[in-house]
């Protein structure tokens, strides 16, 4: 067996498939682009779905990649198993309607067994296949695979809802009897038993059917273009080539584990209790890559996943005796491991370290808060005479404070409490069900559209043209090619067009199609890219259209110019964000409409009012500087040398357009722009908001819309000035401040009067003292305007020895407010109110000395007051 590093394995994979005519596709960002069905890029094929469903035709139908991926559906298993990871690398080779089963299997076998390549012993390889897929079985036989090494399995069929699907054949490596202590042998594969002997290293999916949930599998129709989709785990291959017991003893993880050894003073034992080392090594890899790709820790979505990973790693660090922030120190070691193929981790290490360290420090405070919460909870249980820590409370500590269950249990058991394990499991299951219900359904590929995929006629978009003559090359109505049409809706392709197809956040052009007589024959409502890249015009047909005929194509120039102003302003905004809040604020999506622009960007906190003011000033300064906007076409490498910034998620070809705005902004962009920033006129931010964990959004307007926005604000200020009788707008702030001070003074006077009234009323209430079980108590209904007045009563009550317990009830509006206060250890106010509140259809709680509740049944107030004595 060869000894190969992970970098050598990855490169050998790519080199082999490149030798078979495959284009090497770079690893995509972990944050999905234009795919709401995925939280993360979770496989090598996830970024290629547009090719498999036929919505885009690739330049080369043969593709290979090494794709960083994240899967977090069962984080708890990381560290417990030999091969479970949150972030991993999937090696893949793909055929989009080109080669199929024979070549995929033959070349796969060549890569695995040829001495020139991986050189695995043939007798160590086993293959599973779908029982009905006799073609794959026969192909393996033809390559010399022993029949005893071919295992039929019913599960070997890949499908996710409607769309491309098909049988798959998986390849396993036999690590030998040392990993089969019970000597079960081949039954481990035949019965699909989890084991460490036969390791799955590769899955070849033969995508040949359009899956249809409405019919049985045997009736699936064959795809017009059959595809090959494969995946091989780099971590598993590394473990085999490096003779590692688990994936963690490879060069992908051991350098991280060695750093953890230094930080903890503990030694990693491959045969001992090493779970904490594994969790930390795995999670910091995922965190480093995900943050580097623009995701940030937060309370929802992918942000919540990152926060959970970090907190889990921190707690395992504490189990190793590391009590200070340490994870951020592991970012650079991660970067060095992956540097040969993923240099971006080291390039962004300072920002990644900053985010990780800040999150660690925040969590340290959260842990302290969790400890206090647990201490208070256990004290309350003791006082109430309870001996079991309920599952819902354990789950709250786990979910809200990040407390590992075992830590909560250990601390509780030390104080003599039993643990409600089943209750915790039930709470955990309920949360998992909620999470599954909230996941966006989908993820499968769309059905292939043979009609659109079959459009091969050339079409060119002409930049700078408002109107031109063009020949109608293709016309599609009701998903069929037609030569003539005189009504309804159609899709059109011309040999050339001035209409911009929606792309890169810029909306499509609208406009008109005229015949030779200048008559309107169609109205263009939308333009999108066809699978082969041609501008595809969606039109409302108003007159006769014929293919092969020449027409005049005229865009709505006013609409185009308004969109261009917003598009150029978006570039200025992007550069201004870098200037004001940092280089990490990279684009995460945009929309340039004619009425407004919307810009999404990565940032870890809300942009302050002062920062927004500076950003707005920056953009307007560039507009008023009348900077020239220059576009040049060049190759991608030259563009990068020029310093052009590629936009998030965009795919660029060999030839690119570089848009330069003075010395202020330079970006790769295929859209249309104004010639000079002065054409934008004015820029105004309307709002800034969070739209997801680590992602912010700015909505802004330019030109006429910006003027109207300022005019609207001016009119509002004038209305305020009139209301408060300020002679001029500039006097409004001082006038408002004066009114606020007057209001505060009136509020102080009102509060003082309330206190006097409450004191007077309290004199009567506090005289009505009853007794039960040796305890003095006051239970009374009071007339107050708000719940705060009840606290005032309680404060007065505390000043003198009126009674041991006070219960006050007030009907305020449609609600019932209840207050319980206690001066004796024999009565826990929080527990008493839990017994009383349900009587008025309410609930509440609080501390031993003070508690409050809300209810809705005012008719039951007297019943509650009568019950107080029974509860003492």
UniProtKB/TrEMBL annotation:
Annotated positions binding Zn(2+): 567, 571, 669, 673
GO molecular function, one example?
Answer: catalytic activity, acting on a protein
Question: Needs which cofactor?
Answer: Zn(2+)
Q: Where in the cell is it found?
A: Cytoplasm
Which GO BP terms sit in this record?
alanyl-tRNA aminoacylation
Under the heading Gene3D superfamilies, the entry gives:
2.40.30.130, 3.10.310.40, 3.30.54.20, 6.10.250.550, Bira Bifunctional Protein, Domain 2 (3.30.930.10), Threonyl-trna Synthetase, Chain A, domain 2 (3.30.980.10)
UniProt keywords (A-Z) are:
Aminoacyl-tRNA synthetase, ATP-binding, Coiled coil, Cytoplasm, Ligase, Metal-binding, Nucleotide-binding, Protein biosynthesis, RNA-binding, tRNA-binding, Zinc
Please tell me where this protein is predominantly located: cytoplasm
Among HAMAP family, the record links this protein to:
Ala_tRNA_synth_B
Query: Know the name of this protein?
Result: Alanine--tRNA ligase
